[in-house]
Specification:
Largest sheet of chain B: 6 strands, antiparallel
Structural class of chain B: alpha+beta
Radius of gyration of chain B: 22 Å
Oligomer: heterodimer
Largest interface: A-B, 55 and 46 residues
Distance between the termini of chain B: 88 Å
Radius of gyration of chain A: 23 Å
Number of helices of chain A: 3
Structural class of chain A: mainly beta
Helix content of chain A: under 10%
Order of helices and strands of chain B: HHEEEEEEEEEEEHEEHHEHHH
Shape of chain B: globular
Number of strands of chain B: 14
């Protein structure tokens, strides 16, 4: 490893010299010799952590093929580093024997590319990046190999407090909260990924400007969630587009530990939009989600955050395909559905349009689906639920579709 | 040949002593070097490293409430370059001049009921204020206790000891890696000290000693330090907040590693939801323990805060770093504090 680093250091020095010397002609950049992978011999966790600490900006660290048992969380705090394995099923970092740290790998620097490796069985979150702008998660697998279990870590892929986030072609299985969770971030793409057997497949929370497309969300408790929560440094989540996703058979039991917001997600939901603004759900394929394909709802707990709006606003649903579903509503939906005959239509709204002592608000929920797509509002009015005040109706709300946000453009997508 | 070698060795020694600042006090060339020194003795922070005798200008200090790290004994020293001083601040860490070094040695004894008997040092951490900001360097002591070696990737060390309560402990003590240093010492994108704040240092005339030694300028009269967390003659709320401040608030603050939690535990925080009262967790995962709120006034067993400081399980235990066993005194304090909170 040290030889490799030294060689790389020498290469960087040569480049620096080349950059300093005046050049009279256009020359191509000096070709880097591809670095050798880290040695798989000895204490691989120590080798890898040392390489992550010693890395210089712009460096690529290559992981060898193999499964490696790690006992402590890894961390990277150097800008511009690429961490690349031999393939998401070929280089496996296994944390089953983890003794410390809140996640398998923590990235706190900018312009980092993570690709072609897998992370397994972390005690906490899988891979977290915090305050890490221009991060790329690409061709990664994060999973808990024992399947759904309350003791699994919360998030598989977990970028938070970051700007310009790209998650693509990843696979996440069995996270006890969300497989892919993007929180308190801005300018986000999550695409072409597979999330299965998690409580939430993909969750965009307290974030702005996200495109979620081309994903397969199957066999989770809930497929794709767009939430906004109170009492956090960043709230007012808005402007998310969810399109061209396969959102099917999200009927896994809810195995999230109580206390977490996703613990209230009814098993069998496709998309949930809660307390967010300007969310567009279109051209997705929903099938066999037993509670409801789309659930629109207000944040239902008491809160003190004066800047927080718990209602979903400016929502557009259009052009989605809805297969069978709503046949066996679960969780909090079960008693409400029971009062309405036991099953639910494709699209369900809690019908909450006010909170506290406030007046009812116009939420502008635009259901622009074919007329044969079922809709139901429970007409709850406000939380907590008062069964006597419930006014269920199959009438779609009067709304004018909000203007769809432009496609997300990321500056680093072609890296 | 032998004489030649001897003369060459003499020449090298002369070269060494002429290179630094001299034999008195820390070596500023090493302190300001771009890279960490390979061994602790290179800094000249101790006139007798093995005996832990600080060099001239290096002052021992302590905090009234230390972070709990598996019952380790801690020895702290501060160095501020000659002719300079740290500037006093009422609530934040003092503003230390460039060239300052904070030294913290972690040590254990066979029986922590008598921590001075047979004590050995495990690691020494340096926080150095370089020209472009603070850096954190961990050094691990050798078996012979004669030298500590730069160990940026951290290390697990098996330690057997007896806790202050008389309980046999087998610790998998974690020397943090260099990035983990930053996890706790993070302020925004930068690294900063945690302990040297007026409220932690103001006891037994310590701030006056700092000022008298020329280390500190701008010390006002009437500084109100925090109470010792386990001095039951002091108000419970202030003691619990002091404990949370030193054990949690380095991450749980607006510009710390746990900023995204919205749970801010500095003693200066005033918002009820910010300190966790009736606050729902955001990313706790199984760290919630199936409980719904961070603090439920009057009900410690329903409070996630207590659940997490009572756990030793990675992914649940708080703090995430630096603790592998629980501290009964700390748990009792936080339990008492939550139980005594009035329910609305």
């Amino acid at each position: 490893m040290s030889i490799q680093l030294r060689a790389l250091g020498a290469a960087v020095s040569v480049l620096a010299l080349a950059a300093c010397s005046p050049s009279t002609t256009e020359t191509t950049a000096p070709a880097f010799e591809a670095p050798a992978p880290l040695s798989a011999e000895g204490d691989f966790g120590a080798t890898l952590q040392a390489a992550l600490i010693a890395a210089k900006p712009g460096e690529t660290i290559l992981l060898p093929e193999g499964t490696f048992q790690l006992t402590d969380g890894l961390s990277l705090d150097v800008d511009g580093v690429t961490l690349r394995g031999a393939g998401q099923e070929k280089t496996i970092l296994d944390f089953a024997g983890q003794e410390g740290a809140g996640e398998g790998l923590l990235v706190t620097s900018d312009d980092v590319l993570l690709m072609d490796f897998g992370v397994r069985n972390t005690k906490g979150d899988g891979i977290k990046s915090k305050g890490a702008d221009q991060i790329i998660y690409r061709y990664l697998t994060v999973e808990w190999t024992g399947g759904p279990d309350e003791a699994n870590g919360a998030y598989g892929i977990y970028p938070v407090e970051s700007k310009n986030v790209l998650v693509e072609n990843v696979t996440v299985r069995a996270a006890s909260d969300a497989g892919i969770y993007v929180g308190q971030s801005d300018n986000i793409i999550v695409r072409n990924s597979v999330v299965e057997y998690n409580v939430a497949g993909i969750e965009i929370e307290n974030s702005m400007n996200a495109d979620v497309y081309g994903n397969i969300a199957r066999n989770n408790t809930g497929g794709i969630l767009v939430f906004d929560l109170p009492d956090l440094p960043v709230s007012g989540g808005n402007s998310t587009r969810i399109f061209d996703n396969e959102i099917i058979e999200n009927n896994t039991r809810n195995f999230a530990p109580a206390g977490n917001i996703v613990a209230s997600v009814p098993s069998g939901t496709g998309v949930i939009v809660m307390a967010n603004r300007n969310v567009h759900v279109f051209d997705n394929n929903f099938d066999n989600n037993r509670s409801a394909h789309v659930l629109i709802m207000s944040y239902s707990e008491p809160f003190t955050d004066e800047n927080y709006n718990p209602l979903p606003r400016d929502l557009v649903l259009r052009g989605n395909t809805y297969g069978a579903g709503g046949n066996d509503p679960q969780g909090d939906l079960a008693p409400l559905a029971a009062a309405l005959g036991g099953t639910l239509p494709a699209i369900v709204w809690d019908g909450v349009d006010r909170w506290g002592a406030g007046e009812a608000q116009a939420l502008n929920i635009a259901v622009e689906e074919a007329s044969d797509v079922g809709f139901m509002s429970f007409g709850l009015g406000k939380y907590p639920i008062d069964p006597a005040a419930m006014r269920p109706t199959p009438e779609r709300p009067v709304a004018e579709a909000a203007v769809e946000p432009a496609a997300i453009v990321l500056p680093h997508v072609d890296r | 040949m032998k004489w030649q070698a001897f003369l060459a060795a003499l020449f090298l020694l002369a070269g060494c002593s002429a290179g630094g600042k001299g034999t008195v006090g820390p070596d500023l060339d090493v302190i300001f070097a771009a890279d960490p020194a390979p061994v602790l003795s290179d800094y000249g922070l101790f006139s007798d490293l093995a005996g832990a005798v600080p060099a001239q200008g290096v002052l021992p200090y302590d905090l009234i409430n230390p972070l709990f790290t598996d019952h380790a004994a801690k020895h702290r020293f501060v160095f501020v370059p000659d002719g300079k001083a740290a500037a006093y601040h009422e609530t934040d860490v003092f503003d230390f001049p460039v060239g300052s070094v904070l030294v913290k040695t972690f040590a254990f004894a066979p029986d922590m009921r008598a921590p001075e008997d047979g004590q050995w040092r495990v690691e020494t951490r340096l926080l150095i204020h370089k020209a472009d900001g603070w850096v954190a360097y961990p050094y691990v002591w050798n078996e012979a206790q004669t030298e500590a070696v730069y160990t940026p990737a951290g290390k697990r060390i098996d330690i057997e000891t007896v806790s202050p309560a008389g309980e046999a402990l087998q610790l998998r003590y974690a020397v943090p890696n260099q990035n983990q240093c930053k996890t706790c010492h993070q302020v925004g994108k930068d690294i900063a000290p945690i302990g040297p704040k007026a409220r932690h240092l103001d006891h037994d005339g310590q701030l006056l000693r700092w000022a008298g030694a020329g280390l500190l300028e701008g010390l006002p009269e009437g500084v109100a330090g925090e109470p010792y967390a386990f001095d039951v003659s002091k108000p419970l709320d202030a003691r619990a907040r002091a404990w949370l401040d030193i054990n949690c608030a380095h991450c749980h603050k607006a510009d710390g590693s746990a900023s995204n939690s919205g749970l801010w535990l500095s003693a200066t925080e005033t918002g009820a939801a910010q300190i966790g009262i009736f606050k729902h967790p955001v990313a706790a995962g199984r760290g919630s323990g199936g409980l719904k709120q961070v603090i439920v006034p009057g009900d410690p067993d329903a409070s996630i805060l207590l659940y997490r400081i009572a756990s030793t399980e990675p992914g649940v235990a708080m703090p995430e770093l630096g603790r592998s066993v629980t501290d009964p005194d700390s748990l009792a304090l936080i339990r008492e504090w939550i139980a005594a909170m009035e329910t609305p």
